[in-house]
User: Which sequence fits this backbone?
């Protein structure tokens, strides 16, 4: 091996014995990458040896050129690694060294010298050759990226050369080469978009004048003080020499404050692109040398909008002032650059915007002091212009960011992984809101940050002393349902007052609303204000109680406001009742005393009326301000002390939530919407829910009941209040819930109307497209082409303009069609029928797509042949009547003339053709065409022409044969024309002396042809098109056959007629980026995954071949389209290429990253096409875009595209994937690398975890790194050090987005999830969408968030996927539409747990900060959803968890209070209100059944039903119909029918609705109702919300019973069985009016609910009723139940482990949650109490001892069972005989006791069944109480019996479910029916799902 001396070969030290780890590591390094094993060593370098990775990469790059030099490079890397870590203590270092040693030993023998005999001479000669070939000759011709790589290689080679060659033997020439390389490397660095420091050919983007102007402005560093530089090193890093030169303003800021080099480079490019894109807008490019002053000011306004607002809020002076006499633009750029550098290095602090404002404020103060010599306001020190520079580039990170991050990290630890109570730790909002107080300005900078925030312990929350922990700031997220009232108190007060008023009015004798005008009734109605007073008191009490933990952080004025609010509310709650009582006769003495004191007031009117008037004054004032939104907005944002004092009482002063009021027009819209809705809701509630119950209630209250059927504890209670509560409780719940239904109805109606007015669905089918296609090019140019290019608005278009517009449309349309062909949605035949020529200059008519002209030529020929009239006018009138037919006829005539004329070489032949065409034109003009031409021979001419065109397109081997065939057909054609069709055709022949008598002479004519023309591409396209026009019949009306292709074409063309903003020029458009977070999902499916078969013998590839056919049963499906494409001989696919293409084909149909990246890169494609169309002008009419792709003009187009668009994928774990031992992870890394190489504009950001040694100790450091694709490798662009692991603080997805957002560019950011897609035609509309950011509708602020329509592309997989697709498309879309019109309502917030639904909080945060959110439907993106039952349920659980956390959040509370009343209602019913309504729906069922159970068991039902008026009343059941509508999922169906009706027609909507019902959609929605309710309620009570990975696979598989049981046991099965018991008991003991149809509907809907909850998972489980799978599931479930749990045992393996995880939320629940849980459990005891008094053995006794004896029986039974269980464990083995005797004695004793009970006590068989129904709920209640009090029972050693009882119940539940499944599985037709049910839609599209599930592939 080579050594340092270069003269002696030595072997690297080989370990004496490989350890097992080394062997495994070697195997990992060698085997894990099959495709390119040479690259493995450079890509798997341990993080602590990162410095050797470039050396190994160079070795890989030059290995093919010179293996020996590559070997020397690897040996140098090995020596360097050994010097860096001699003991090999770093992670993976020893294994890597071992691998490298083995590789070097192998290469030492194989690598031979090529240039010399020794290593020193070999590397010197190679270095010379490399320099002369690549650097000396290529520095002016090679691209900057290539030159950067070359210089990197040269630098590494010289380093290796110095180790191989002794210093004295390195000659001067080598030294000079090395110095030249070093100087060039200092001028060159890797870049992202702008090669600011690069060597090589000048990049086109750097020649753009806007870039030059921005760069010139940024490089203006004149008059800036030069800080003196001292050589001090950062404590964490190796010494690094820093450049002393100042390149621009950002360099100057970095030298002053110590920003990282990578951050400076990143923000430099960011700032240049921002300035360039903003400055070039509407700018004359002729004279363009410098930035406009307004550009920098606009950027200042945008960036510092929040900072200036913050300063104004805190009443402090802004530090962005511009002193007189200073260079304004330079100073502005300094401020902007400083802010961007702070933001770029802030890491997790970016989630704290006001903290960043504070940091900037302090640093800008230092800048002002440095520039203008000011005195520091705190220390009094004087700034000096020659201030010392920052000691290193990490000063800012170390002194400012890291202290704040450390506080965040400690608080995150106190979160305990999301399990700790929110009140015990501070999240992002708490820490950020500290900077809403002016006390932050008094902190010592910068050390005060750490001192202020670090006042807490690092121990667990429950051990932190209250005095040492910092309090919450402004708000406490306590777990209680009271948040729903506290946040939306105005709504609850309104509904409660309205309910009270309606009850009072209905209680009058006639029950008419007119009774309100009666004086006494009106006075009674006024009592609603007493209710309001008490509700306000409740609100004030909740404000104090729920914010108590934050009191130490509140201002005194805020605390005073809380106390005064409570005091005032308490006073009014006392005054109003007293005043009201004083006006009522028969008052008490206390009331009379107060009445005497106010006699003078009473003489003038009722004291209560005056009190109410005074009480309502604030409400009246608020109502007045409601109609003056502009005035109220000004008041809320004012800093005036008087206004602040006035507003202080109304709402506490906060930085956010000020001025959220809409303009007057929007206000009137949504106010009218809600007034109409509330009128309908209240009228319905009054006449259907309340009024019918009044009469029965009065009768019940008059009844006297003394004949109870159980022991009544309160027999003397008056008015039968228990019965009244049992009857009214469900009605009250329905009253609360039904507003959600009315909201759904109204939003459906208004949303449908708005959608219709927006022209949605005007083009729904291909037939509609055919009828309107003539207007599509005009609409396209009007909407999607800049007005300066297509000046068509308001003016008549001449023919030239029309043709130019059509040419622009043709380019986009053809690219659209080609993109669908590349995606295999259409076939080659479909593509040819859909394409249009790029140029229409060759013909006099517009050349429409052939599918529009299909069959027109044959019809026209038949029409001419059969035409009997002699007037030309009639024939041509018929042809012209159909515009498409006229275009087809004219085009065919002119194109055929051009084709034949181009083929002929002989001038005489051309003259003959010219004369024929001349005669045709003349005779048409003279109306003599039918007289001069015989139409009956037209069909024979058509046949010959078809044959002629077919020959022209055919392939040939022998040219002479091919030519002769064409000549023969052409001569036949000319003969038919001249002799058969033309009456005077012989004259043409005579004129040119053509002799046709002899065959020989005839063959001499038309035989000189230009056969080479048949190979001309553009000429062949004309022939292809002409052939299509002649041959394609009317069947082409169905083109395209693919449903998705049809949907895309119709949506795109329909969107052109919608209200789209005008398109700007590319240079004028807003620049934007797309950001996609990626974790560890699939990128591309591997070949093994494609062919790997599941348990049913089905592979993924086979599945997709069957699931993606076309609509019609033909070969034109996507798989066949793909096969034709890859087998096309012109494309020349190799076998490996076909395998790779198959991987992509499959991956593009799944929810993979590759699909998302492909879709997003359409933006770049669309931008380049737009640039071409703008720059090409008339050249675009000649197919220029296709030729431009290989020309130099493409560089400029790409430069503009790069300037406007950036795509960043945030692959958080890319570094871990690269070094992972899992082959799947390594493949994911390679696939991402291939994506970067495939798409050069793609950028990948990841968090690099690097091990570094500091003072001999290993430390882990974290970096944000940006990569781009290189030559088979990734190239690092920027590396920015982080203060710590960024993803440890908050939720994963927002943290992943946050670390990468600094690498995005542009003024707008589109956030795209990894399961989304995009389409080329939609990408073309992006510049129009971006114009929405510049619109201010109705004088409002500009939008901050734009919502786009989503198409669910997974809807065709199964019926469940179809349900989710329809729900998403309709319910979500129509809700967004109605919220935007008229209810308009970092990236996302990231605090752990509370911001689980992070994207929702982005919208809330934007609204609270004055943002404006809109939704637009003229553009769509693709979206994947879960397709399996369990996946969908996990998703619904995650969303319900998120909504539960939202309920507790400060954002919901503030929006609930800061929005006006009607916007607050919109906000409530579209967020947490929907989930609360779902919960109330289920509670209504419980309340109804438990109320009826109470009435039945107590005997009250029997007593009350004897009253005839009560018996005949159906009021309760009528009201409960509303609940049933909600429960059955009809709430979801209404928007779906409306949306599908709009977009596909109402006939299709009705059909889809019927099909969905046949597919049991109601079962699905009812089941998911249970999911929502369970997880929403549990989250609020106990927490436990978390991200639930649903998986994004599309293969539907059978889920085992144990898996379904784990998922749904607590959420559905237990609740379903509880309802079963209630319904059974009510059926047995009830005496209700069973003949009522409404009653039957209610009970049937309840049974439907029960059936859905119990059997929904099995109905929608593929092969759920297959007998063999049922048997397997039973075996698996018994194994799962029997396995014992333990530490590390996964819940999938053991019931004990699962049940521990299922109870985890109780372990961390607070005492309030535990108590409420126990209270809810108490309902199970009523079963035993009610049933035991109805047993025959009780003999109608009502004594309490009966209930006591039942407990004795229960306890005795449990003890006996426990004794048997203990005996089995302790004596079953050693004393088996004794144990058997004991069991026999117990059995005999049991039989004797039962005999006595039957014979003596009168026990019956029915009593036994009733006893089981009584004791089962009681045992379940004991079990649940035991789980809640688990710590107590574990302490007393009583937990094991509870666990045994729990297992027994699990066996019972499982057996009951399995029994039903087994019975159904016994009948084969059930399984077949289920398959058809699940996959009905797929069946209709040709999917043979039975083959898939059974594994039969033939």
Assistant:
């Amino acid at each position: 091996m080579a050594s340092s001396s270069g003269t002696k070969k030595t072997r690297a030290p080989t370990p004496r014995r490989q350890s097992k780890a080394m062997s495994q590591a070697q195997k990992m390094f060698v085997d894990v990458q099959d495709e390119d094993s040479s690259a493995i060593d450079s890509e798997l370098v341990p993080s602590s040896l990162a410095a050797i990775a470039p050396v190994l990469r160079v070795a890989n790059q030059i290995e093919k050129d010179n293996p020996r030099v590559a070997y020397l490079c690897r040996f140098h890397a090995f020596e360097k690694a050994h010097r860096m870590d001699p003991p090999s203590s770093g992670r993976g270092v020893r294994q890597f060294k071992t691998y490298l040693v083995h590789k070097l030993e192998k290469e030492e023998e194989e690598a031979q010298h090529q240039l010399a005999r020794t290593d020193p001479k070999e590397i010197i000669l190679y270095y010379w050759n490399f320099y002369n070939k690549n650097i000396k000759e290529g520095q002016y011709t090679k691209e900057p990226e290539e030159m950067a790589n070359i210089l990197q290689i040269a630098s590494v080679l010289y380093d290796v050369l110095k180790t191989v060659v002794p210093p004295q033997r390195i000659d001067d020439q080598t030294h000079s080469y090395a110095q030249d390389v070093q100087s060039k490397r200092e001028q060159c660095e890797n870049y992202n978009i702008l090669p600011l420091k690069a060597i090589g050919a000048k990049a086109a983007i750097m020649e753009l004048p806007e870039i030059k102007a921005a760069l010139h402005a940024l490089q203006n560093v004149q008059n800036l003080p030069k800080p003196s530089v001292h050589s001090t090193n950062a404590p964490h890093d190796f010494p690094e020499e820093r450049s002393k030169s100042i390149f621009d303003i950002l360099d100057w800021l970095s030298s002053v404050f110590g920003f990282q080099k990578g951050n400076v480079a990143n923000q430099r490019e960011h700032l240049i692109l921002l300035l360039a894109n903003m400055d070039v807008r509407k700018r004359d490019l002729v004279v363009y040398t410098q930035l406009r002053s307004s550009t920098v000011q606009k950027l200042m306004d945008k960036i510092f909008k929040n900072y200036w607002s913050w300063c104004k809020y805190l009443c402090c002076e802004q530090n962005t002032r511009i002193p007189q006499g200073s260079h304004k633009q330079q100073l502005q750029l300094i401020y902007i650059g400083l802010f961007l550098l702070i933001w770029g290095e802030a890491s997790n602090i970016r989630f704290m915007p006001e903290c960043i404002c504070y940091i900037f404020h302090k640093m800008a103060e230092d800048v002002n002091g440095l520039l203008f010599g000011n005195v520091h306001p705190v220390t009094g020190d004087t700034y000096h212009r020659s201030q010392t520079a920052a000691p290193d580039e990490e000063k800012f990170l170390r002194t400012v960011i890291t202290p704040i991050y450390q506080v965040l990290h400690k608080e995150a630890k106190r979160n305990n992984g999301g399990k700790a109570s929110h009140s015990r730790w501070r999240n992002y909002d708490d820490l950020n809101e500290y900077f809403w107080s002016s006390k932050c300005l008094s902190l010592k900078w910068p050390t005060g940050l750490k001192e202020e925030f670090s006042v807490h312990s690092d121990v667990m929350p429950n051990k932190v002393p209250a005095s040492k922990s910092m309090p919450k700031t402004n708000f406490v997220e306590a777990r209680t349902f009271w948040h729903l009232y506290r946040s939306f108190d105005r709504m609850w007060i309104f509904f409660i007052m309205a309910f009270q008023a309606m009850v009072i009015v209905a209680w009058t004798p006639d029950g008419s609303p007119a009774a309100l005008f009666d004086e006494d009734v009106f006075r009674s109605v006024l009592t609603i204000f007493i209710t309001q007073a008490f509700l306000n008191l409740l609100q004030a009490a909740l404000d104090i109680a729920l914010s108590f933990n934050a009191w130490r952080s509140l201002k005194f004025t805020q605390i005073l406001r809380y106390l005064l609010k409570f005091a005032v509310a308490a006073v009014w709650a006392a005054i109003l009742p007293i005043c009201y009582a004083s006006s009522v006769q028969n008052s008490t003495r206390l009331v009379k005393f107060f009445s005497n004191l106010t006699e003078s007031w009473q003489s003038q009117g009722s004291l209560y009326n005056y009190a109410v008037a005074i009480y309502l004054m604030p409400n009246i004032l608020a109502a007045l301000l409601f109609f003056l939104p502009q005035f109220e907005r000004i008041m809320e944002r004012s800093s005036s002390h008087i206004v602040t004092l006035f507003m202080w009482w109304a709402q506490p002063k906060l930085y956010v939530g000020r001025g959220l009021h809409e303009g007057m027009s929007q206000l009137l819209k949504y106010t009218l919407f809600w007034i109409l809705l509330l009128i309908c809701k209240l009228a319905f509630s009054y006449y259907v829910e309340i009024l019918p119950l009044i009469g029965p209630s009065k009768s019940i209250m008059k009844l006297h009941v003394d004949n109870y059927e159980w022991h009544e504890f309160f027999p003397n209670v008056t008015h039968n209040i228990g019965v009244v509560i049992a009857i009214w409780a469900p009605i009250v719940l329905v009253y609360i819930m039904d507003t959600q239904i009315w909201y759904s109805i109204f939003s459906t109606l208004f949303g449908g109307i708005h959608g219709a007015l927006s022209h949605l669905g005007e083009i729904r089918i291909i037939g509609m497209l055919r009828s309107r296609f003539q207007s599509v090019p005009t609409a396209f140019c009007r909407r999607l082409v800049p007005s300066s290019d297509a000046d068509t608005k308001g003016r008549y278009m001449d023919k030239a303009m029309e043709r130019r517009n059509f040419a622009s449309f043709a380019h986009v349309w053809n690219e659209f069609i080609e993109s669908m062909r590349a995606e295999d949605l259409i076939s080659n035949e479909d593509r040819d029928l859909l394409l249009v020529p790029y140029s229409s200059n060759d013909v006099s008519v517009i050349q429409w797509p052939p599918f529009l002209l299909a069959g027109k030529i044959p019809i026209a020929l038949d029409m001419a042949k059969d035409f009997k009239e002699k007037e030309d006018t009639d024939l041509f009138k018929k042809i012209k009547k159909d515009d498409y037919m006229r275009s087809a006829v004219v085009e065919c005539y002119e194109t055929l003339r051009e084709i034949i004329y181009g083929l002929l070489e002989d001038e005489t032949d051309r003259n003959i053709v010219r004369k024929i065409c001349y005669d045709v034109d003349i005779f048409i003009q003279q109306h003599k065409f039918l007289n001069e031409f015989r139409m009956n021979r037209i069909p024979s001419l058509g046949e010959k022409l078809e044959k002629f065109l077919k020959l022209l397109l055919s392939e040939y081997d022998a040219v002479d044969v091919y030519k002769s065939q064409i000549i023969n057909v052409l001569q036949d054609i000319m003969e038919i024309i001249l002799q058969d069709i033309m009456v005077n055709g012989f004259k043409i022949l005579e004129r040119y002396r053509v002799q046709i008598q002899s065959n020989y002479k005839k063959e001499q004519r038309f035989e000189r042809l230009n056969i080479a023309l048949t190979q001309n591409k553009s000429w062949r396209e004309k022939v292809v098109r002409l052939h299509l026009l002649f041959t394609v019949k009317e069947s082409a009306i169905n083109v395209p056959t693919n449903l998705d292709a049809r949907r895309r074409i119709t949506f795109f063309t329909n969107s052109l007629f919608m209200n789209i903003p005008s398109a700007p020029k590319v240079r004028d458009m807003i620049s934007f980026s797309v950001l996609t977070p990626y974790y560890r999902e699939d990128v591309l499916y591997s070949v093994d995954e494609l062919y790997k078969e599941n348990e049913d013998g089905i592979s993924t590839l086979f599945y997709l071949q069957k699931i993606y056919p076309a609509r019609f049963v033909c070969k034109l499906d996507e798989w066949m389209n793909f096969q034709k494409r890859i087998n096309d001989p012109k494309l020349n696919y190799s076998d490996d290429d076909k395998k790779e293409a198959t991987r992509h084909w499959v991956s593009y149909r799944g929810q993979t990253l590759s699909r998302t990246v492909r879709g997003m890169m359409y933006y770049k494609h669309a931008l380049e096409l737009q640039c071409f169309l703008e720059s090409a002008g008339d050249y675009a009419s000649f197919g220029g875009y296709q030729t431009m792709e290989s020309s130099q003009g493409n560089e400029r187009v790409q430069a503009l595209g790069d300037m406007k668009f950036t795509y960043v994928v945030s692959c958080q774990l890319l570094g871990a994937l690269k070094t992972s031992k899992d082959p799947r992870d390594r493949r994911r890394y390679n696939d991402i690398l291939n994506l970067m190489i495939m798409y050069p504009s793609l950028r990948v950001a990841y968090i690099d975890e690097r091990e570094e040694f500091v003072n001999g100790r290993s430390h882990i450091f974290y970096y944000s790194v940006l990569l781009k694709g290189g030559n088979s490798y990734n190239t690092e662009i920027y590396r920015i050090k982080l203060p710590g692991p960024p993803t440890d603080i908050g939720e994963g997805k927002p943290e992943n987005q946050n670390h990468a957002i600094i690498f995005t560019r542009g003024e707008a950011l589109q956030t795209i999830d990894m399961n989304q897609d995009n389409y080329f035609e939609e990408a073309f509309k992006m510049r129009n969408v971006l114009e929405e950011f510049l619109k201010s509708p109705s004088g409002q602020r500009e939008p901050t968030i734009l919502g786009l329509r989503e198409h669910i592309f997974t809807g065709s997989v199964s019926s469940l996927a179809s349900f989710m697709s329809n729900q998403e498309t309709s319910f979500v879309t129509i809700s967004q539409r109605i919220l935007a019109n008229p209810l308009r309502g970092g990236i996302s917030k990231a605090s752990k747990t509370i911001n689980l639904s992070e994207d929702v909080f982005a919208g809330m945060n934007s609204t609270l900060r004055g943002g404006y959110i809109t939704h637009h439907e003229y553009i769509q993106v693709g979206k994947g959803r879960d397709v399996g039952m369990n996946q969908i349920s996990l998703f619904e659980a995650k969303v319900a968890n998120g909504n539960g956390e939202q309920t507790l959040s400060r954002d919901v509370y503030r929006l609930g209070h800061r929005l006006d009343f009607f916007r607050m209602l919109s906000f409530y019913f579209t967020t947490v209100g929907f989930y609360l309504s779902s919960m109330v729906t289920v509670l209504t069922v419980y309340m109804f059944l438990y109320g009826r159970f109470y009435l039945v068991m107590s005997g009250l039902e029997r007593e009350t039903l004897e009253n005839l008026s009560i018996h005949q009343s159906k009021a309760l059941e009528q009201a409960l119909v509303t609940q049933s509508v909600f429960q059955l999922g009809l709430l979801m169906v209404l928007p779906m029918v409306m949306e599908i009706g709009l977009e596909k027609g109402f006939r299709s909507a009705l059909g889809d609705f019927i099909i969905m019902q046949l597919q049991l959609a109601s079962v699905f929605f009812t089941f998911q109702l249970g999911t929502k309710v369970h997880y929403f309620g549990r989250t609020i009570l106990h927490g436990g919300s978390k991200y639930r990975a649903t998986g994004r696979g599309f293969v539907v598989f059978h889920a085992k019973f144990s898996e379904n049981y784990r998922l749904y046991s607590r959420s559905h099965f237990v609740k379903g069985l509880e309802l079963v018991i209630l319904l059974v008991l009510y059926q047995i003991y009830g005496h209700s009016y069973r003949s009522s149809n409404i009653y039957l509907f209610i009970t049937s809907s309840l049974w439907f609910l029960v059936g859905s909850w119990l059997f929904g998972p099995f109905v929608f489980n593929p092969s759920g009723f297959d007998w063999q799978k049922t048997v397997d599931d039973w075996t698996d479930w018994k194994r799962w139940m029997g396995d014992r749990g333990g530490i590390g045992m996964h819940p999938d393996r053991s019931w004990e482990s699962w049940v521990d995880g299922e109870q985890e939320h109780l372990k961390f629940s607070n005492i309030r949650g535990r108590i409420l849980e126990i209270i809810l459990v108490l309902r199970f005891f009523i079963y035993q109490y009610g049933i035991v008094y109805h047993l025959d053995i009780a003999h109608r006794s009502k004594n309490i001892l009966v209930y006591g004896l039942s407990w004795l029986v229960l306890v005795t039974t449990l003890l006996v069972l426990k004794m048997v269980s203990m005996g089995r464990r302790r004596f079953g083995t050693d004393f088996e005989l004794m144990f058997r005797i004991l069991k026999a004695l117990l059995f005999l004793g049991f039989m004797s006791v039962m005999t006595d009970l039957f014979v003596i006590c009168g026990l019956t068989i029915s009593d036994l069944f009733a006893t089981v129904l009584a004791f089962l709920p009681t045992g379940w209640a004991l079990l649940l109480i035991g789980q809640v009090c688990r710590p107590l029972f574990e302490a007393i050693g009583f937990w094991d019996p509870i666990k045994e009882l729990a297992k027994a119940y699990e066996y019972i539940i499982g057996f009951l479910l399995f029994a039903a499944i087994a019975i159904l599985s016994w009948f084969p037709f059930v399984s077949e029916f289920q398959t058809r049910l699940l996959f009905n839609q797929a069946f209709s599209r040709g999917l043979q799902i039975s083959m898939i599930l059974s594994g039969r592939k033939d």
